[in-house]
Amino acid sequence: MAARTSAPEKRPGFFKQITALFRFTREAYPWLPWLLIGILLVGVGVGIGIGFLIPPLVWWSVLLWGVTGLMAGILASLMTMTRLSTKAMYRKIEGRPGAAGHVLSTSLGRNWQTSDMPVAVNPKTQEAVYRAIGRGGVVIVGEGSRGRLTRLMNEERTKVQRVAQGVPITVIYLGNGEGDVKIDDLSKTIKALPKKIDKTTMAAIIRRVDSVSQSLASLPIPKGVDPTKVRAQRPR
User: Are 69 and 45 in contact (CB under 8 A)?
Assistant: First the structure.
């Protein structure tokens, strides 16, 4: 019988993560290697130039400034690749069901409470509604066709208003049309909302909304109503 092991799963090392990030980003931006090389060369060039300009002019001073420029170039390269990889990720998931949930659950940070699961969904058309609660109030995000989302969005907004009177509620439709917010602008649009409530009020709103969601989920299903539709439109 094979011996059981309790050792935690080994995570990939730093260089493996960087390699995977580079490969992923290069698929979207084939010119990435040349950009990174250019940033490194500029960093080294700037460092050497500073070494020649600052007296006394000695070889070891120029060398040290060149190494400093190289380190700065590596840092700038990593920052550039990280930003491009984020854009590549948004480009890859744009238009796919669940894209909004992924962005909300991974990009807003600890100041917002959200989930990658929708609070309401149309099972036929896959339109979905997501909710985020933070210092900026309550944000309701619709993913799909605006016309088919209107009813679900209004229902969610009405439910929140009942338990969070006076708290700002922001409604966002994802898309590329007029008045819509693009997927790559979603997190920064939410983070840019002015802080209107404190942490105590935020925690109270979260409890109230969760309580209402659980109450609605426990309601009996009337006869003649399709259970799949009821579950799909209830908050989870």
Answer: yes
Give the model confidence (pLDDT) of 32-55 as tens digits: 999 999 999 999 999 999 989 988
Number of Cβ within a 10 Å radius of residue 188: 10
Q: 3-state class of 212 per DSSP?
A: helix
- In single-letter form, the type of residue at position 165 comes to Q
Q: Rounded distance, CA 140 to CA 5, Å?
A: 45
**Largest distance between two CA atoms of the chain:** 90
Q: Where are the alpha helices (DSSP H) in 129-185?
A: 146-163
Of 6, 226, 221, 210, whose CA–CA distance to 115 is shortest?
Answer: 210
Considering only CA atoms, which of 134, 132, 125 is closest in space to residue 152?
125
Identify the segments of the chain with pLDDT beneath 70: 1-12, 213-236
How many CB atoms lie under 10 A from the CB of residue 4? 5
Pairing verdict, β 137-143 and 112-113: unpaired
Q: Cα separation of 62 and 5, whole Å? A: 53
Instruction: List the end-to-end C-alpha distance of the chain, in Å, as a whole number.
Output: 43
